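Support request, please re-run this one:
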Amino acid sequence: MLYFDTSLLVPLILPEATSSKITAFFRTLAADAFTVSHWTLVEFSSLIAREVRMGRLDGAAAMRADARFGEMVEASFTILLPTAGDFTLARQYLRNPETGLRAGDALHLAVAANHHAAAIYSLDKILLRAGTVLRLPVSMGIRTRS
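Re-run finished. Output below.
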């Protein structure tokens, strides 16, 4: 199972500097192993709403992007429903101040860990650092500048 954080999926829907690299990276992976959690859908919708509030997307474009994301996830990913055990593990991760985690990222890592993900892909540097601290199989999957 390959678990994808929202940050790695956004460039597949919205144009970003990493979009072409992310698209190429996905072509190298076994599509039957793609996994996200229901939390990913909520996070993406939140990101789209923020883009509208900041004037970077209009309402119609936001609705199209959100619908496209939902369709992509439903067609290509296994969607995991976070369990009580996932929330418990996320709380444990948050109790370690060395991780610097936010709640949503802790939940991503917990869902992936509890489902024994072979890899956890993200572009979020805090999540990646925390995953390393927690000895989880985190990776950007691509090379970026910085």
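DSSP finds seven helices and five strands in the chain. The helical segments are 6-13, 19-27, 38-53, 59-76, 84-94, 103-114, 125-133.
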